[in-house]
Design a protein that fits this description.
The structure holds two protein chains of two kinds. Chain A starts with a strand and ends with a strand. In chain A, the strands form two sheets. In chain A, strands 2, 4, 5, 6, 9, 10 and 11 form a seven-stranded mixed sheet that branches. A four-stranded antiparallel sheet of chain A has the order 1-3-8-7, with no helix packed on it. Chain A is mainly beta. In chain A, 38% of the residues are buried. Chain A has strands at residues 5-7, 10-13, 19-24, 31-38, 42-50, 53-56, 65-71, 74-79, 88-95, 102-103, 107-111. In chain B, strands 2, 4, 5, 9, 10 and 11 form a six-stranded mixed sheet that branches. Chain B has strands at 4-7, 10-14, 19-25, 30-38, 44-51, 56-59, 62-67, 72-77, 86-94, 102-104, 108-113. Chain B is mostly beta strands. The chains are: A mainly beta, B mainly beta. The A-B interface holds A 30-31, 33, 42-43, 45, 48, 50, 55-56, 91, 93, 95, 97-106, 108 and B 31-32, 34, 36, 41-46, 49, 89, 91, 93, 97-99, 101-107.
Chain lengths: 112, 114
């Protein structure tokens, strides 16, 4: 398996624009997590899915953030409208059951 | 709510030394604990996973121990090398397994001086 795949790797956008981050989890994994990493706050859990169903989105900072998982092999995290304080690295991770978690390479988002 | 603390926040040692990184967590009802490595600008690479029923795991020069009752884990790196320079992160999964998600510490930034 190619591991967890995220796209794009880098995204630069202007304030107010919509941003969509994409994630392909490892095949067979039933949990998918979205994290945000900043220098100040470290890694923060935004939302996670179990079998494509959102379980806990309490970490989503604002209504501007939304996430979907239309099928077992694809998830998106959308920010609309984006703001400079959303600049961070966004990671996707997947797990099968209670085993080892695997992370993607992340998307570095810069909002100017 | 689970909280994970890593000490020290930063560490710089000469090459060849053995070193210990510490991780503590507030809720001992965990399912497993995982150590990751993160290089600058990169993603997280899994190093070791310790199930709650285990006391330690070893991979090469790395040894991770877990004392669930006291809420502590250590990562031991033997004969450190400059290539070991990275940020090391500890994460726990609660007793609900994947349903509890991973809670991370803020990491230990390690520099191995040649």
């Amino acid at each position: 398996d190619a591991g967890v795949i995220q796209s794009p790797r880098h995204e630069v956008t202007e304030m107010g624009q919509e941003v969509t981050l994409r994630c392909k989890p490892i095949s067979g994994h039933d949990y998918l997590f979205w994290y945000r990493q900043t220098m100040m706050r470290g890694l923060e859990l935004l939302i996670y899915f179990n079998n494509n169903v959102p379980i806990d989105d309490s970490g989503m900072p604002e209504d501007r953030f939304s996430a979907k998982m239309p099928n077992a092999s694809f998830s998106t995290l959308k920010i609309q409208p984006s703001e400079p304080r959303d600049s961070a690295v966004y990671f996707c991770a997947s797990i099968r059951g209670n085993t080892e978690a695997f992370f993607g390479q992340g998307t570095r988002l810069t909002v100017v | 709510k689970q909280e994970v603390t890593q000490i020290p926040a930063a560490l710089s040692v000469p090459e060849g030394e053995n070193l210990v990184l510490n991780c503590s967590f507030t809720d001992s009802a965990i399912y497993n604990l995982q150590w990751f490595r993160q290089d600058p600008g990169k993603g997280l690479t899994s190093l070791l996973l310790i199930q709650s029923s285990q006391r330690e795991q070893t991979s090469g020069r790395l040894n991770a121990s877990l004392d669930k009752s006291s809420g502590r884990s250590t990562l031991y790196i033997a004969a450190s090398q400059p290539g070991d320079s990275a940020t090391y992160l500890c994460a726990v999964i609660g007793s609900g397994g994947g349903a509890d998600g991973l809670t991370f510490g803020k990491g230990t930034h390690l520099i191995i001086q040649p």
